[in-house]
Amino acid sequence: MSGRRATLIAVAVVLAWLVIGGVAGPYAGRLSEVATNDNAAFLPTDAEATRAQDLSSEFVDRQTIPALVVYERPSGITEADRQRAGADAARFAQVPGVLTPLPPPIPSEDGQALQVVVPVDDAEGEEIGSVVKQLRDITGGDRDGLTVDVAGPAGLLADLIEVFSAIDGPLLLVTLVVVLIILLVVYRSPVLWIFPLLAAGTSYALASVFVYLLADADVVKLNGQAQGILTVLVFGAGTDYALLMIARYREELHRHDRPWDAMRTAWKGAAPAIIASGGTVIVSLLCLLLSSLNSNRALGPVAAIGIAATLLVMLTFLPALLVLGGRWAFWPRRPRQDQADPRIEHGIWSRVAGFVARHARPIWLSTAVVLALLTLGLTQLGATTLGQSDLFTQRTDSVDGQEVINRHFPAGTGSPATIFTTEQTARQVAQVAQGVPGVAEVRPLTTGPQTGPPEENATPKVVDGRVQLEATLADPPDSDGAERALRELRVAVHQVPGADAVVGGFTAINVDTSDAAKRDQNVIIPVVLVVIAVILALLLRALLAPVLLIATVLLSFAATLGLCALLFRHVFGFPGVDSSFPLFAFVFLVALGIDYNIFLTSRVREESVKRGTRAGVLAGLAVTGGVITSAGIVLAATFSALAVLPLVVLVELGTAVAIGVLIDTIIVRSLLVPALAYDIGPKIWWPGRLSRANGEREARDAG
């Protein structure tokens, strides 16, 4: 192809992508419009809490989510405090989205607190955040020794919405800055960093369009967590693929005069590894569709769309940009056509390769032992459902308010467990429920407006032969104690003959979510491993190599979780990890960890065909060492950007992925895998033809 024609094609591709990016760009800032953060919306349809929620809709004209406004004065509530609470309640009733009439303020038994239950229309959705903000504005905060907080499920949801609102601004900005700094350090060029960053931004815009349209059509449910992961994943993985393509292009510029010819050869060499890597991540993420939790099922396609968009952009837009930039893009370190061996440019990694060759067996044995020792930290992991006070890395109004409730009221006030049972067995079920340890009070939902606690002998409301009971728990609704009480409550009421009891509520949602998360781990993790093994076998045309690669990544994953468990508990002071953490960490760490092994072993196989296995291992390590390490640092840094969101589960996930990627790139890919492959020799490609051909070649060389 002539240089003029190649340039015209590159210009056309660049202009087309710039137009696409311009059209798609605004959607990146609109994802929050179609996100939802209601835990109940993500439960399995067959979960007991979901069935309870469906039944509860029949007992009320409109579903509500309560905001609990609590007033505390340690010296005792005064008459002026009561008047203030009453005046606030009257103003609460005027807020759009608040359902009236409001029950009167509830005093605590110790006389030190008041509580106003404000039912907020559940149909408000994400606008619940603005409703709660208006409630907080009305209270005016603390005054003259009286503290005021807005807590309860609505207060918690409002605080979560505020946290996730930072995704469109601070998280994206921090991610961009991190990637920019690393690219400047890696390339030491005032020009070259523009290309991968522009391509990554285009990838994010393209992914945002598809995610927005699917979420808006209710095909997928997008939440703040998935949105944050999409941001860092696209920029992290996109920069990784760009680094690999640029490194191969630079190599070929030493062998070809024209940039187009260099890019064509570089594309043929790098694209298979990039496609295999991205395909592995996509398929692994799509395995989340097997989850019973809608939130997990949503994350899989959302993140997979991000990777697919990134692959498309990095294999078309980026090469066109590089062709147009030519050698000048690398200024001031422009590669010349000198037919230089690419290993010459990688002096440090050539020395690492030599070190591996001299001490292969001690290296892989010692690194494996170190990683195995780190796995001992898994005993400190403690996966559980994080309590409300443990969700955030900083104090929030909802957390402060819940602590006031815990001090002065039954901690489950405002978030009772709801029990649905037949009218004939309602009294017996209520008695059984009242006898469950951890249940403070059981009352029926009565007819008429709910302006306060029902009378002792009030007539229960009956709908289709069923009655709704409300069981107030003694412990906070998101605590371990409340979850134990909820499980015992279910066992007790399910045993009442003919009751057909169904137990739901806030605590039940947490319990069912935790149970579903454990089930998902047992189902999805084996499937992901099988899928990755098949992809590796097809790519490497061998069986032994994929098994060994998966084994090293699993060891790296376990070591990462062990190290993180120690850090979370003894450095960060976190009480544990959320029940969803192990699965998310596995999918990202294993899929991304395999990425770097694919980059390495695909190049090792290419070199082994020409040089023999052991020489191919050393050449592959020397050539890819720098670019893969740089890619790992980029991905680790981008996931670390999740720490800007003050949410423990995202800080933990970002930390785990960052640490895991660094372990993979610095220890597993740089030392363990090359040393193991070098020690095994040609048999690593068993039962493929390369294992026999290389074996014969190395036997002749030895002879």
Automatic annotation (TrEMBL):
> What SUPFAM superfamilies does this protein map onto?
Multidrug efflux transporter AcrB transmembrane domain
Where do the TM regions start and end? Answer: 169-187, 194-215, 227-249, 270-291, 303-324, 363-383, 523-540, 547-568, 580-600, 612-637, 643-663
Superkingdom of the organism of origin: Bacteria
Pfam families, sorted: MMPL
Entry's localization field? Cell membrane
Q: Which InterPro entries match?
A: MMPL_dom, Mycobact_MmpL, SSD
Query: Per the database record, which ranges form the SSD domain?
Result: 229-324, 550-678
Q: What keywords appear on the UniProt entry? A: Cell membrane, Membrane, Transmembrane, Transmembrane helix
Q: Which membrane topology term applies here?
A: Multi-pass membrane protein
Major localisation? membrane
- Give the family, as the similarity comment puts it: Belongs to the resistance-nodulation-cell division (RND) (TC 2.A.6) family. MmpL subfamily.
Name recorded for this polypeptide? RND superfamily putative drug exporter
* Native species: Micromonospora luteifusca
Taxonomic lineage: Bacteria, Bacillati, Actinomycetota, Actinomycetes, Micromonosporales
